[in-house]
Structures are given as structure tokens and as C-alpha cells.
Amino acid sequence: MAQKNNGPVIGMAIFALLSVSFAVFWYMTWSDNQLVYKSLGDATKKEQDLNGTVRDQLAEIQHLKGLIDVGENVETGIGDPDQDTVDGRTQQILKDLAGDGTAALPALIPALRKESAENNKNSFTATNRMQQLVLKRRENDQLTINKDGEIDTQKAAVAKAEAKLIQQEAIHNEELARLGEQVDTLRGTTVRLEDELAALRVSSARQIEDLVDDNNDKRTAIVDLRARLRQKDDPTFSTADGRVQSVDHNRELCYIDLGRADGLREGVTFSVYTPGNSGVGRNNTSDIKGKIEVVDILADHRAEARIVTQDLGRPIAGDDPIYSPIFQTGQSLEIAVAGRVALDGLDRGQFRRLVAAAGGRISVQVDDDGAFTDGKGNPIDSGDAPRRISSRTRYLIIADLGDDTENQELEQIYKRIRDNTQKLRNQAENLGIYEIGLSTFLEHIGYSRKQVKWTPQSSGGFPGRLPNGSHSESVNSSFRQSQSSAVISGKYSGLSKSTTTSIGNNSKAFGN
User: Fold this and answer.
1) Which of 155, 270, 460, 483 is the most exposed place for a label (fewest CB within 10 A)?
2) 291, 270 in Cβ contact below 8 A?
3) Threshold 0.70, pTM exceeds
4) What are 375-402's pLDDT values in tens digits?
């Protein structure tokens, strides 16, 4: 195939080479012919000059014949005394002119001899020139014949090369025709395949669109079912992190079965659940009976914790389970936060420190301005932010997403917060990660707001209703009727008071 494709190129190369050779040869031949033609022209000119001289001489002879009154056909007859010749007639005339031939003849004869010699010389010269011209013409004719032969040879070579080139072109044309047929066949196949591909693309696009719609419908259904299940049953997939071992109510301390080997650190807070709880880490926090904060690590699996708060009707006791959503033995858990962190006694910096103290990590957050940042507050790309929610993420914590406001600038911030929060929500839904409110999360980790001073003037004086007590069934009292008498506890009064002794009667809250 490669040789056939190179045939036309080789043919064209040979044709070009022969054309150049022929042009060079033709130029050399033309140059030689020019020289020959020039020599021939010079000889012809000389011949014409000699012919002119001969004609002049003949004209002069005819003129002399006229002068001596002889016919045009009379021979010259040089040295012939016969009066029928020009010479004899001339001699006779000279004799007649010279009288006795003794006076004018001696002077006339040398002149005539000189004229005759000049005529003979001119005649010889003309004859010699004519012979040279004939010889030169023969040479030129022979050279022309030789050059014509060479030209014929070159023409034959050129004709042979042209014939070969025509043959190569015919082969090339056949090859081109065959390749053209192949190209047409391939083009037809390509058009057919393109049509099939277009139809396949349309069909695939429809199938992909149907699958995407079906996937979106199923995803929406799963998310909706998950939300409904979460709302209805409030399932939990978490387990207690540890248990309370013992309690010292006088010192408001307790001891838990977590310690140094579990990666526990001081400052970590836990929520304390009732032993018969329906599951830790649920949105329903009714099973939480108190909150504790680790104050001292005593051993590998023992630590001392301060009782931050407890339900007086359900005091913290031994074997109570404890739980924190950002603490797990031997692991570092992640959370994602979306919205403004703004609670009494808590800001975003304190929240980060609270999570870090519990051994957790914030993987991504939507800050107070609606921007994506990492756990340290450094900006991150909006495309990378959702991908930071992974299988290691335990919760997506939803904080304050903003309310409707007439402040345009603030409304733009709220909109940006909600839009970016939705991106994190979509990723969390894809991975089955539950959302949890900020308040619920803080309650799970056992966080309590900072103590705020309460003054009687702010509530209208004593007795004042206690909201927490109103929701619990306290000893010998009915619901929502607990009141404070403003009497200060003996623990904080500074007065020495003996320990109260139990009389053995059970509270109604724990009675049969």
C-alpha cells in the first residue's frame, strides 16, 4: 500500500528530473545552434558580398564588352589572339588605337595586366570564399543533424517518461478511486453510527432523566420517611458512654467509670439518664435527670465529676448511664454546625472550646455571616464544604437560622445562612446523618448556662414560681404549684447546721 501511494510521487520526481534535463539540453543545443546560425549568417553575408563582387565584375566585363562592341556570349579568351574573343578583340582595338602599336600599347598593356590581375584576384577570393561558405554550411548542416538526433533522443526519453508517468497516474487514480470507495463506505458507516449514537444518547438521556427523577423521588421519600420516623418514634442509634459508679450528694460530686485510658479530659460534660431510659441521644430529653462535669481524672477508668444540675425528684444515683454526643471512648468524633450560635452565656468561640474540651471536632460550619468555615473559623470553598460531612460526622447541629426582618442587610445574611445550611442538610440526608437542635445538643453534652443573678424586683417579689419545679412532681406538692420562699439553703447560708436525719417515710413520687 505504501509503495503504491509513493508511485505518483516517484513518477512526478522522474518527470521533473527529465524536464530539467531536457531544458538544460535544449538550452545547450539552442546555444550551439545560435552559434552555428551566427556563423552561417556570417558566411551567408560573405557569400552575398562575394556574389555582389562577382556581379560587379561581371557587370564591368559586360560593360567592357559593350565598349569593345562584342556580344555578351563572347568568351574572354585571355591570351587568345583570335578576334572572336574579348582578349583578341581588345588586342586588336589596342593595336588599332596604337597605330603601329608602338606608342600607346606599352603603357596600356601594364594597365590592362594590372586590371586583369585585380580581376583574377577578386575572382579567386570570391571563389575561395564561396568554397569556405559551402564547407561551413555543410558543417552546420551536419551539426544541425546531430543536434536534431540528440533532440529526438531526448524527446523519446521524455515521451517514455510521460508514458510511465501516465501509467503511474492511472494506477494512482485507481488507488484513489478504491480509497474513495472505502472512504464513502466508512463515511456511510460513520453517519449510521452517529445516528445510532444520537438515538442512544436521546434514549440514555431519557433513561438517565427517568432514573434521576426516580432517584430523587425515592430520596425524597426516604428523607420524608426518616423525618417522620424521627418525629414519631425518635429512634436512637447511640449507646451510653459510661455509668455513674457512686454519688456524694453532700459534696455534690459523683464518680464515673471513664478515665485516662478512655481519652477522658477534665472539663468534659455529660448528661445523666435514668436507668430505664428509652434510649440516649434522642430529641426527647425527658429521660435526662441531670448534668455532670469532669473535674479530676483519678485512674484509667475512674474520674470525679461535679454535679452541675439534677432533677430533685430524680436525683443522680449509682449505675445511672451517662452520655455525650461528642465523646466516645478512644475516638474523636466530628460534628457540623449551621447557623448563628447565640445563647445566653454562650458564643461561637466558647462553643468551639466546649466541643474541643470534650474531645470532639467541628468539621464544617456556617458562621454568623453565612460563610463556610472550618472548626477554627478559617474560610473554606463552598464546593468543598458539603464534602466535609462524612461517615465520621455524628450530628448536623442546627442553630439560629434567622427570622424575617425589615433590615435588608440582615435579611441578606439570613438568606445566605439558610441557603448554605440547606447544602449541608442535603449532604447529611444523603449520608443518613440526623439533624439536632443546638439546645438539644447542649443538653446532651450536659452544658448549663452560666448562672444569672435573679432579683425579686424582676419577678414581682416572693413567693416566686419556679419553672423547673413546676414541671416536676416534687415531694408532697402538685404539678405547677412549686413556689420559692426566698429562704437561702443552709449550704450557702454560712450557718452551721446538723445533717438532717431521715424519718423513713417515702415520697409520693416514689410511692406505690
Assistant:
1) 460
2) yes
3) no
4) 888 999 988 889 898 878 888 989 888 8
